[in-house]
Write a structure and sequence with these properties.
Layout lengths: L6 H10 L2 H18 L1 H4 L21 E8 L8 H7 L6 E10 L3 E6 L9 E5 L10 H7 E6 L10 H37 L1 H16 L2 H12 L3 H11 L1 H15 L3 H8 L4 H9 L4 H25 L10 H8 L9 H27 L5
Antiparallel strand pairs: 1-2, 1-5, 2-3, 3-4
Length: about 375
């Protein structure tokens, strides 16, 4: 076997030997796959998995109930849009306890949680376009529906909400880290390279931003930009650049006096080229490691904001929002409604932290 000679190849070999790093990486790849194909995997593929069944709210995992599906007359939707963003309108689903057929259609007794006699309703055959006779209604429009993780307080499928909610957590991580890297690397590199008054001004901005509690600053930015999906991404990204800037500045201060930088200046290269082509590639190791930690931090901040009600807005599923809706159920005998999203957040954050630790060990030149 040929021995690796480049620093990148050596670091990659070290990373492959770290069990928890590789395991976490595989777990995150799986999470990204689930996020991309969430609506194809989720049992409820309506937009935001928002199909409500109030009569079967807060049911335990594995709950099964017969479901009558009444199709809706809507225009055909783009299959690609449905695959990635769900159906904008879906058929009505009614949990039933029993049913009988009549001459004109089907008579159902709605499911009742307290096992009392539910309401009886009759639906005519004309509501079921694919049923040629009353007998075919049962075959084509009534089926047992199983909720693997149970239902939330609105009777929505919790598994579907969890699968689609992973998009929020991963998206906030990617976009927030991208914004923090863009601002942090730029500010840190300029301050560290030029020094003097430029560095003093940048350090003043960094110190002022650093002194404000992160969550308070995020809340202030979110309220200024308004509640919403993209506003949270921008707010979190604008608060995470400070640590990146400090690390980059410190690395640039140590590297800018190296011989290869001096040689680049002697050759007449412009400052922008020296920073981008010669300095930044040699200081990216700590930046990559801190990005993994920032990714985990962004997920926690978004979950906290959603729990406070200023993150992703309903009916968009968010793990923090799901905990907010159900934290009271911990003392009401149904703690799984809050524990399941809590465990999901914990596992995703832990995976990023383990990857960060593995990258730190792999890029440590002393080893």
């Amino acid at each position: 076997m040929k021995k690796a000679t480049s620093l990148t190849a050596i670091a990659l070999q070290k990373f492959k030997k770290n069990f928890w790093g590789v395991f976490s990486f595989c777990f995150l790849v799986l999470c990204v796959f689930v996020a991309i194909f969430a609506y194809a995997i989720a049992p409820d593929n309506s937009e935001n998995a928002n199909q409500m069944h109030l009569s079967v709210h807060s049911k335990s995992p594995g709950f099964t109930v017969p479901m009558l599906t009444i199709p809706s007359n809507v225009e055909a939707q783009n299959p690609v849009s449905v695959f990635f963003f769900g159906k904008k309108t879906t058929a009505s689903e009614i949990p039933i306890a029993s049913f009988t057929t009549s001459e004109n259609g089907i008579v159902i007794t709605e499911y009742s949680e307290d096992r009392t006699e539910g309401l009886e309703k009759e639906y005519e055959l004309s509501l079921f376009p694919e049923a040629a006779s009353v007998a075919e209604i049962q075959e084509k429009y009534i089926s047992d529906k199983k909720f693997l993780l149970g239902t939330d307080k609105y009777g929505r499928d919790l598994l579907s909400r969890m699968l689609i909610g992973i998009r929020i957590s991963l998206a906030i991580g990617f976009i927030a880290v991208f914004i923090s890297l863009l601002i942090g690397i730029t500010m840190g590199a300029i301050g560290g390279y030029y020094g003097g008054k430029v560095d003093a001004v940048i350090m003043w901005i960094i110190n002022v931003t650093w002194s404000i509690p992160t969550l308070l600053l995020v809340i202030a930015i979110t309220l200024a930009l308004g509640k919403g999906f993209w506003q949270v991404f921008i707010a979190v990204g604008l608060t995470m650049w400070v640590e990146v800037a400090r690390v980059v500045r410190g690395q640039v201060l140590g590297v800018k006096e190296m011989q290869y930088v001096t040689a680049a200046r002697a050759l007449g290269f412009k400052d922008a080229r020296i920073i981008i082509r010669h300095i930044l590639p040699n200081i990216m190791a700590p930046v990559i490691i801190i990005s993994a930690a920032n990714f985990a931090g962004a997920i926690l901040i978004e979950s906290g904001l959603s729990f406070l009600g200023i993150g992703a807005q309903p009916p968009m599923p968010s793990w923090g929002g799901i905990i907010k809706d159900h934290y009271a159920y911990i003392i009401l005998g149904k703690p799984y409604l809050a524990i399941i999203p809590g465990l999901a957040i914990m596992s995703l954050v832990t995976a990023f932290m383990l990857i960060g630790n593995a990258l730190r060990d792999a890029m440590d030149v002393r080893n």
